[in-house]
Amino acid sequence: MAAGTDRTESTTAAQEGRRRTPGTVSFAAAALTATVALSMVLVAFGNITDFGTNREFVRHVLAMDTTFKDPDLMWRAVTSRTLQDAAYLAIIAWEAVTAAVLVLATWRWAAALRGGSPDRARRASSAGLVMVLLLFGAGFFGIGGEWFAMWQSADWNGLDSALRYVVLAGLALVVVHLPAASRPAD
Question: pTM above 0.70?
Fold first, then answer.
């Protein structure tokens, strides 16, 4: 019986050791979450410290002043500076909260890689990554791109940039939810 117990403890120790290695799904999920967290921290920081640059971006997109100016669409334009600035502040707040959630998720992945359960890390990552998808997918693609016709602007078009965030966050979300428990390496 003691030999069987030793084998079980040895197997568990080997599995725990593998959980921490770069070749595991948990490590990949942690790395991707950290990458998106860093990106969102820098996006929020940039918008706070260089407030004016992206405020102009938001103002032009909402005003629709560089689109084709189709009369059937121009009724959608928001020309009030107050409303434009409120929208920009809401975007910055969303980015900052998203960054905080993803930093927390990264910290939880680090704890999970040291032998803890990845469940809390997975939940926090999912929340933060979905927040990124909502900002850049729903916000930039849907609202900015389609409702405010940002795709028509040669100068104030953020769709390519938003696509990078959607792809990165989407990929990270898929990896975070891979069934690591069923894999021998994890």
Answer: yes
